[in-house]
Amino acid sequence: METSYLISINVLEFVTVIINYCAALHIVQTSHTTDDPSPVLLNVTDNTSALNWTLHSCKTSKIGRMLGRFFCSLLINAPLGINSEWISTTENEIADDISRLKKE
After folding, report:
1. Could you tell me the sign of the dihedral formed by the alpha carbons of 94, 11, 16, 27, in that order?
2. pTM of the model
3. pLDDT of 76-93, one tens digit each?
């Protein structure tokens, strides 16, 4: 397979951020989960590119820039904000456990 067909892990991690944001936004919009008029989702990631793309923008990946524009369109006038925080891979035990699940 040619490398031009591969999707960067950074892009996949950023897609995960966007999907998590959409899920949280749905909850905020459809149920009474908080009295806070401006709730903020804390996104924790062990991928520094996904972290930076969430807080700033992607400058190198065409797909990352396109996802960034899509993500911004979700954020405009949304009742939910987002903030990101980095966690080291060694401390990210839950994600490691999920990624290592095997069929029994």
Report:
1. positive
2. 0.81
3. 999 999 999 998 877 877
